[in-house]
Amino acid sequence: MRKARTFFLSIVLFLLSSCTTIPASLHTVPANAPLARRVAKLAAGSGARMGIVALHVETGRHLELNAADEFEAASVVKLALLTEAVAREREGRFDLTDRWKLTAKNVAAGSGVLDEFDPGLTPTNRDLLQLMIAISDNTAADRFIDLFGAEAVNARMAALGLPGIRLLGRIPNRGMDPPKWPPLGSMTPRDTAELYRRVATRTLLGPAGDRLLATLLAAQRARDRLPRLLLDGEGSTWAGKSGSYGGVRNDSGMLTTKKGRFVLVAFADRISDRKGATLRATRAMGDIAAEIVNVWSASLPDLPPVVEPPLPPVLMPPVPRAETTLAEARANPGALHLDRVFREADRRFWDLWRAAGGNETDACLIPMPNSWWDGYMPWKIEPVSALVLHHTAQDTDEECIALFQKPESRVSSHFLVQRDGRLVQFVSLEHRAWHAGASLFHGRMALNRTSVGVEITGDGNRYPFAPAQVESVVRLVGVLTAMFELESPWIAGHQHISPDRKNDPGALFPWNEVLGRGLNLARELTGGSASTAP
Question: Which is catalytic among the residues 70, 84, 455, 513?
Fold first, then answer.
């Protein structure tokens, strides 16, 4: 009797499910009426208006429900901010390592963790992107909304062929949020799924940009909606973005299993205020996703993991080695690559160098590939306000020159003081060399942008520098202090701006002599007006 009753109930349930009406906006490719009915029933039982897109990347199978309808995006629109950030990074207009300062005035209302920190925190742009995705931090999102602007973000989405993704507003600041927030964005399930599909296939921003997008999306911690029933399988992973708003619950992302890659998007709005209504809607998302993935997976073969080729490094174009004397540079200012090392500021420097007793015939100009210059990230060129001294830790001048000549070294300095005291210039004083790296000094970060870098051949921790080298460094301190009105606290060693990483110019560097004599020389060159104030 019990078996007969169970069989009878299963027949009744089957007949009921087979009678479920399939909405006109729900279709599957290839056609699968039983799956469509089950999805329609789960969506109807959610108590919300639902927009669903699911697709299997490798085979093109897909299912859509209300896919072209606009939905309140909530925090899923942060996908557009993330895409704009990565696109700008690939274009050289946005630096992930730049830091942003948290203040009491720029804390947003709602979700996140930055509102729990004291003002003064300085996370990098990458830190903020990760927080915006991983825990949907609203303060981080507002930082990028303010930086990029909705018009630029929407233009980017339209240019990518995704006009259904639109940023509409800004998250209110903490303490200033109205009872009902204005819409943050609108999205269609179809365009949202297409964004993920193109990230998965590395056709949105290109291999490097899409890998970065996928990496940041994998940081999301919310797994209680679409992937709720799908992450038990060995090797299954999820990368996506969810969002919540009054009466709205959304989720989206890429699921990777041994059967391949699935893009899943579910938007739900018009959720009532009744107790349990929100849970009912979000549980329906997970049930729908599991139904689709499990049905499709049953007829899909196991696939080998996707192995991507290593990305080629992004390097500056090489600069042909061309050593030029000052006399040659002055006589032929239009010579190849001299615009990278001999500009108006450099002419003034060498005039002061001669006035300070320097021998111009000893000088040499050798342009280097790695720098920020007016043709590459000019927005990173800030006024010079610091001087940073280094040692090469190498035994010969040629080792330093050869290293800097390689684009893959990713390093350079403005000057090299050679073993015999002669001076080589690599980068124009109107440009910025890559010598400081990660740095912090007197509350200022990223010293590359604001400093002149000077290398001294040798190792100041193993043996003293030659007297001729010390004389040249004294002259450099004097001339650069006079030229840029440097203040003595901003004349430092690499060991001072990166003490956890660097120990140069070393314990044997004669700081007292160099600073004392250099500042006196600066006063002579400026008629006593050079500043030594902190």
Answer: 455
